[in-house]
């Protein structure tokens, strides 16, 4: 797969045009919702774990020194908490560009905090995309994140904004909170 998934995503139309659809954000889409939406609701998805295993060459790093950003890894029994947005389908065009470094639109079932559920979309970066970095020890990932910068800013800020947003949601996430504590330790030392 190429480093630009924009064209592939244009063909991944899982929902009828002319209707609104639910988008589930689990990374920057939680705390950086710079797109129009009709409503937003805390939600979770089941069977997925959030991991900083995706490389960022375009936002939070560079091709020479990629940062690390969130993707989801299939993990039976896991719960990933985030934010659901009800959007117009046209909003996906600009989101495809924002998420172009390896993320593909995928269908998921969203479970809202109030107990109801709906079909929706996530942007998912799987292990076969060119920017995927995969697992590494937390300390190693923390040093990479503490050092990386890209056109959208410091990789550290992406992680710490996400950790703050998850805390506000009352979400459990040992991976994100563990990384955030390490990065704070490195950059505040
Ligand atoms: C998401 O936030 O749902 C996708 C990954 C990202 O943009 O950080």
Automatic annotation (TrEMBL):
E.C. numbers: 4.3.2.7
Uppermost EC category: lyase
Entry annotated with the keyword Lyase: yes
One Pfam family per UniProt: ChaC
MF (Gene Ontology): glutathione specific gamma-glutamylcyclotransferase activity
UniProt keyword annotations, A-Z: Lyase
Domain of life: Bacteria
Protein's recorded name: glutathione-specific gamma-glutamylcyclotransferase
């Amino acid at each position: 797969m190429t480093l630009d998934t924009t064209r592939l995503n244009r063909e991944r139309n899982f929902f009828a045009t002319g209707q609104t659809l639910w988008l589930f954000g689990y990374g920057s889409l939680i705390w950086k919702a710079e797109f129009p939406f009709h409503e937003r609701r805390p939600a979770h998805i089941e069977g997925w774990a959030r991991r900083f295993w995706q490389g960022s060459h375009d936002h939070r790093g560079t091709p020479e020194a990629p940062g690390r950003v969130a993707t989801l890894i299939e993990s039976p029994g896991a719960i990933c908490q985030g934010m659901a947005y009800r959007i117009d389908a046209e909003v996906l065009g600009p989101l495809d560009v924002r998420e172009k470094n390896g993320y593909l639109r995928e269908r998921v079932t969203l479970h809202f905090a109030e107990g109801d559920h709906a079909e929706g979309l996530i942007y998912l970066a799987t292990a076969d995309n060119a920017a995927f970095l995969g697992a590494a020890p937390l300390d190693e990932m923390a040093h990479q994140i503490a050092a990386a910068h890209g056109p959208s800013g410091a990789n550290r800020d992406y992680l710490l904004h996400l950790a703050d947003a998850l805390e506000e949601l009352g979400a459990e996430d040992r991976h994100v909170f563990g990384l955030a504590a390490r990065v704070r330790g490195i950059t505040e030392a």
